[in-house]
Every structure is written in structure tokens, then in C-alpha cells.
Amino acid sequence: MGQLIAVEGLDGAGKNTLVTGLVERWTASGLRIATFTFPRYGKSATADIASEALHGSHGDLRDSVYAMALLFALDRADAAEDIAAATKANDIVILDRYVASNAAYNAGRLEQDVDGEVVRWVADLEYGRFGMPVPDRHVLLGVPAEVAMQRARTRAAGDASRVRDAYERDSDLQRRVDAVYRRLAEDNWTSPWYRYDGQDIAALADLLIP
To answer: Which residues belong to any copy of the Thymidylate kinase-like domain (predicted)?
Structure first.
């Protein structure tokens, strides 16, 4: 049975760069690696509806914290069997965003801390009702929120297909989400968390998989 590792952080924090680096290093070591990126835009109807809502479609859908959270949770639930199969067939499965994103973003929207009701609701929904596998480890991209937001703005300015959504344009929300992520990491929410500052990917890879 392979190891399940979830990579978390704000948009612009560098998750894709980190995942690519870990895959390259572990593959070179002879390990079998699989990756999943959530939300699965272009592959999942629920993820696409959530994205459309965040860009102004579907009336007041975006206003409902729990409706949006449910859409993203259903996207993951639809991939549960694929994740389980990949975990059996590979040494490591990396998840670029996972359940903790739902906890952090919606706690941020409701201005709750990690002890708030929505974090418990997300865990009960996704790990409980939907039976999503719990990661063996989490990695939090610990770059400052201001740095991540500037990267997201720069990326959007240079790529017309990467228009920032309502969450990404809300700087106050991004700061609150960052604070929740850091508390989740401090509390080792659901499994051990590791902080990565973007410097030494080799050391992180060795720490995650000795």
C-alpha cells in the first residue's frame, strides 16, 4: 500500500512546482508515483459548476459557503475509487489540494478558526460520510500570503486562461485562509503536517519518505 501525501496552500504558493519537484526526485529514485489535482476542472461536473459560480455564474450559488463546500467535496468523492486504486498500485500518491482546502477556505469565509463548526463539518462529510482516505502526511506551502497573492496576480496577468476567481481576488479572505492553514498544520489536523518554505525540496522529499 502506497503513501498518501496531500500538498496544501494558497493559490500562488507554489503547489504545482513542489509536486513536480517531488515527482521528479522520487521517480529518479525508482519509486512509482501517481498524482491527483483538485478541483478536477474539466473532468468533474461539480468542480466545473463551482468554478463557474466563482466566476459569476449560477445566481447566488457562490454566496452559500456550504453549497460551495459540498460541490468541491463531491468532486473528491467521485475520485475516491481512483485514489484508492492508485494507492494500491503505487509507492506514493500526491494530492495537489485535498480535504484540508475545504476546511481552510470555508473556515476563512465564515471567519472561523480550526475549532469552528465548519472544519468539523468538512471532516465529518468527507472523511466520514464519503469515506475519503485520510492522507498519511500533509505538506503546507508556508510562503507568506502576500507573496502567494502577488504570484497569483502575476500569473493571471500573463495567462488569459487563468483569470482569478472570487476567492483569489479577495485579499482578506486569502489572509484568513492562510491563518487557518497554519493552525491546521500546528494542530497536525487528521495526520502529521510538514511546513515547506520553497527552499530545499530534496530535504523535504527525504523527510517525507525516509
So the answer is: 7-189
Cell triple for 85: 486504486
Q: What percent of the chain has pLDDT over 70?
A: 99
Q: What angle do CA 47, 51, 52 make, to 5 degrees?
A: 120
CATH fold of 3-208 reads: Rossmann fold (3.40.50)
Q: pTM score, two decimals?
A: 0.93
- Taking each helix axis from N to C end, the angle separating 65-78 and 45-54, rounded to the nearest 10 degrees, works out to 150
Q: Would you list the DSSP string of 39-93?
A: S-TTT-HHHHHHHHHHTT-STTGGG-HHHHHHHHHHHHHHTHHHHHHHHHHSSEE
| Alpha carbons 98 and 88: distance in angstroms, whole number | 19
User: In sequence order, which residues have a C-beta less than 8 Å from that of residue 181 and are 6 or more positions away?
Assistant: 8, 9, 10, 100, 104, 140
- Residue located via cell numbers 482569478: 164
**The residue type at 127:** Y
Distance CA 6, CA 201 (A): 15
Displacement of CA 89 from its chain's centroid (Å)? 22
What is the tens place of the pLDDT at every residue in 137-191?
999 998 888 988 898 888 777 776 667 888 988 999 999 999 999 999 999 999 9
DSSP bridge pairs for 16: none
Q: Count Cβ atoms below 10 Å from residue 66 Cβ, excluding itself.
A: 15
Residues written for the chain: 210
